[in-house]
Specification:
Elements: E1 10-15, E2 20-23, E3 26-28, H1 35-46, E4 50-55, E5 67-70, H2 74-82, E6 89-92, E7 99-101, E8 123-125, H3 129-134, E9 143-150, H4 154-165, E10 169-174, E11 186-187, E12 189-193, E13 196-199, E14 203-204, H5 205-222
Parallel strand pairs: 1-4, 1-6, 4-5, 6-9, 9-10
Antiparallel strand pairs: 2-3, 7-8, 10-12, 11-14, 12-13
Bound molecules: cytidine-5'-monophosphate.
Pathway: Cofactor biosynthesis; coenzyme A biosynthesis; CoA from (R)-pantothenate: step 2/5; Cofactor biosynthesis; coenzyme A biosynthesis; CoA from (R)-pantothenate: step 3/5
Region (Phosphopantothenate--cysteine ligase): 11-226
Catalytic activity: (R)-4'-phosphopantothenate + L-cysteine + CTP = N-[(R)-4-phosphopantothenoyl]-L-cysteine + CMP + diphosphate + H(+); N-[(R)-4-phosphopantothenoyl]-L-cysteine + H(+) = (R)-4'-phosphopantetheine + CO2
Length: 226
Amino acid sequence: HGEAVLAGKKIVVTAGPTHEPIDPVRYLANRSSGRQGYAIADALADLGADVTLVSGPTALRAPAGVTLISCETAREMEAAVMRLPPQDVAVCTAAVADWRPVSEADQKMKKKDRDDVPAPLSLVANPDILAEISAPSVHRPRLVVGFAAETENVEAYAVAKRTRKGCDWIVANDVSLAANVMGGVENQILLITPQGVEYWPRMTKEEVARRLAISIMDWFCSTSDF
Ligand code: C5P
């Protein structure tokens, strides 16, 4: 671990997908690997921050020096985040499922014959954890960073998302198939801040994480009460 420039700073990072149960053996999910969020938690811990990683199901191990809270569904992730003591910074990388089945069947849904299909799945909206964290409150983290995965019009959509969610920064990436980002090793991102838009070169998720951790450190340095 390097210099502890973020010592004493509490930072929550959400990561991974969420799993939304359909029945005891089936769920709705997405292709998020959690790799970018885990790398960010690692990079922030390396700068000395007190990092809590709230993670949906992934195949990854928690980085050293990071407190891991595992959860499965969006509602569990929301509860885990809201239960934390006040945080200085929140970085929401989790690919939270937008919708969940209205209800979870108690028993495995059975097909009666070869062509049998179940009734259409009814879905309801999940809580928007980033928007909740960003809402004005005495305990709002002073810096809230959201992520945006877009397949087109990345900059325009991300700029709009920053305002809509109420967060301070948006890290936007292009997850169109051509960019091969989701589940991959590299990432190409834009950082949207109140000051404007930075286009970062294509780099590994670890490099994105280090650079974002340094941007967060610089942000602390630019605020008077660091
Ligand atoms: O709305 P959209 O999913 O594009 O927004 C992405 C950002 O919002 C990410 O930072 C993600 O972690 C966060 N998010 C969330 N809860 C949701 C949906 C998205 O925290 N239910």
